[in-house]
Amino acid sequence: MVFAPGVEITVDDGGELTINLASTIPIAPSHLFSCDEMWQGITVNPGGVFNFNGSLSGNDDNICKIENAEVAVNAIGNGSGSLNPSIYLNHVTFNNNLISTKLTDDNYGSTFLRSCKYECESGYLTKIPHQGVYPQNHILLEDVSAVTIGGSGNVPNTFTDIYSGIKMVRSNAYVLSSHFKDLKNNNVGPSQNGIGIITENLTNVPCTLEVGAATQFKNLHRGIFSRGNFNIDIHNVVYFRDIDDISIALFHSNYNNKVVIDNVEDFSRTNIGVLVSGRNLYSVIVSNNEFTNTDFVETSTGSFQNTAITLRGFSSTSGAVEVFNNNQQITELVFMPLI
To answer: Which residue of 172, 182, 261, 275 is surrounded by the most CB atoms within 10 Å?
Structure first.
């Protein structure tokens, strides 16, 4: 089944498009949405392939759009390492979905999610059965052994409007060429800025988050917030700017993780640049980063506010703890040593 280019596809209330084993559905530039009620979205079962390959229109908007879905693209693996669902999303706008992309229980090494816009223009969902609900995560990864988010080309992924851009639960991911900006947590009053990437893993099997080139974080509460058993490799990020709490917040108590934060071009107007807290970490390297805090307005008065680098709570570390070649010749931002 192939949809013709440029069509608008109105899905029945509660409807679902399912892609099963050995099925491939390429959808040419199209707009998928519902009318009065939300629809379930597109479900890709083990062995299925979904290819939504769009392009930019004359006003730099994506021609491909998916709106009003409970889970716009839902890939369901079987955990076997074979018959992996394959998802190819290029120049797609996701708007007003409860979850835009959900990947579970498999290796998505061949999948690509690039040059997409993740947004919620209304700020909350307007269609039943989720009318008035504030979406929490644009991309949700659960038990994913590998996936790349972002990629080649001049157009990045952009994440705006809701609580978090990407949430990873017991998952491994490489994120690059992605912009996280103006995310909002509207589930608290008054509303707060949101978080770019959230990770959680309380198992004994370590996961890895790598964040690389052409990635930006702006006007957020936290850029990256990691809890539990994760190896962290953050390198060649363009900037963390206007972060009212912590740009990179890593809470990894009692896990033997490796942490590398290297060559971030700019931390500016951020309450805390880097905070690493944990006992029994394997190694921590924070190097070749630029911290500038001119004109920053302090947002808290705790023990570690307005600092470039804070390492705390260490009782034993197997490998190196190295902090070097960071430019911290700045106004009202100081280095907090290991405590």
So the answer is: 261
